[in-house]
């Protein structure tokens, strides 16, 4: 749950005689940094309400309190987060009508309103968000009041552009924006949400009467495409217009496969999934379909490959925003107590992240491991917590958000204590376009640097061997890849690799500008139990073993470079914690690769030797069909089909490494 920026109030610590715990709905303590209800216990807590047994039973808890608590506790109905120094930040009342649950996710509506106002940069003076119901579905509607002197000429169009670009997770982005002259207030001067929810939604959704870009002005292609979306999404109740974003209207990667099949049926066109990810609005996808009619599959593939060619990479990787940290007098010198290190890690819930945290826990000189931008306590985070010691502290957040989704106070406090940063988290998706990966991958790197540059905290960044493709060499050395080398190849690589290269280059610029010591790690293909479900090479190897058949790789060139996840984690943790700290003003690169290097043409032989069986060679299409029958994820199948349709060879460059495994 996010905290409302309007109600973030530091409230210090418990008074003497009281203990404060933050608990979840099941009365279990929440991790540090996580929002929870304040439960007060201690000798000074009253016995209950006078003459009100039912309320006493509800609010005063005896014997069903968290394990650490043996006395009576009082549930205050107030929400707070605990900061690393033990102090509390008040979030709001638990019964607050601004906190809702939408499709199982708790959402703070005031955060969305605050984000609209902030992102509009003065155009929106006030905003409120409510959840509305249509048919069997709920969706978010934003009501906005424009500033008198900055109101846009086409308010509806302005909102259509603003809302999908809010720096919020997709599920928090309102599906509709409606301009109002003023927000309704109750007699006590508070926002009257009931009155807002009672307002009739415009019959022509999203738009004001002034707007022309309405549902009935959809082009013929858009109209037919909308039918395909409706079919894939079911009845979400969220209105679909030209500028609707598939992912903001309830779509996800798997539903995109349905859209792909629907487009094939409706238009007779096969649109590559990477292109579907890129053209995620109704209008842009309709344009893509129109331009694909009469276009060959090869032309389409070229369009996919060059989807990021319009980006100005100099601007993208510029570290000019760090100018305030270039003055030495503003930098506090980092005094690192090497006997008791505080390490901040991102991506701790992932495949490599869990291995890194496990290694860090083993080290006597690491006293605290702060896992930041943890998205979902119920999923992998719960698993991480089960395996971890009390050195591990989880902080809720998201890599795409300012301050990595933490409260500003929490982020500043945390980074003022950090001795080492390991930025390992990333959206690892080969299908998504660069534009979708910019915020979680490059944006998070910039956010980290902004938080650590003032103290020059050594920064360890997990990149990928894939950036080696941009070096334009058969053998890639352990050094940074300059913009000049990469320029001609950036449009040929997928958005994920581009986002990693952009992060590396931004870090290089940041080091030159501020002196920030940076270590870049480029792991090759990481193997081991728990590899991400969509990891391409892992799937190819696993299903090949199962089927005793390899896909035909005649257009694949170079080497498959495999390295075990625990070795990667060990190599990284050794360099980050045990080895000499990275020197100031230096950026160095380490290739975590080369444990097992298999020339692509020997892959079949390698698997035969490993398993003792003979292997068949299947066409990529034949291999995918057979693997899908055995459970290959449809997105992996779709990706393999996409690359199979490309004419040009697929390269796996050889990485030089100084690691001795
Ligand atoms: N696996 C490989 O073969 C390989 C090779 C080279 C480089 N790498 C790099 O190694 C790092 C770890 O990869 P992995 O294989 O461990 O992948 P993974 O299992 O998918 O882990 C990615 C981690 O990043 C987190 N994350 C993604 N988007 C986020 C967001 N918007 N906000 C907060 N957290 C977010 C994930 O959180 P959730 O748990 O919430 O999803 C997860 O903890 C990545 O930087 C990747 O580029 C991996």
UniProtKB/TrEMBL annotation:
> SUPFAM superfamilies annotated for this entry?
Acetyl-CoA synthetase-like, ACP-like, NAD(P)-binding Rossmann-fold domains
> What are the recorded GO MF terms, alphabetically?
phosphopantetheine binding
Q: Does the keyword Iron apply?
A: no
> What range(s) does the Carrier domain occupy?
219-293
The cross-references to Gene3D superfamilies, in alphabetical order and at most eight, read: 3.30.300.30, ACP-like (1.10.1200.10), N-terminal domain of ligase-like (3.40.50.12780), NAD(P)-binding Rossmann-like Domain (3.40.50.720)
Q: What's the short name of a Pfam family annotated to this entry?
A: AMP-binding_C
Q: Which residues cross the membrane?
A: none
Domain of life of the source: Eukaryota
Alphabetical UniProt keywords: Phosphopantetheine, Phosphoprotein
Which InterPro entries does UniProt cross-reference here? ACP-like_sf (IPR036736), AMP-bd_C (IPR025110), AMP-bd_C_sf (IPR045851), ANL_N_sf (IPR042099), FAR_NAD-bd (IPR013120), NAD(P)-bd_dom_sf (IPR036291), PKS_PP-bd (IPR020806), PP-bd_ACP (IPR009081)
Please identify the protein, giving its name as recorded.
Carrier domain-containing protein
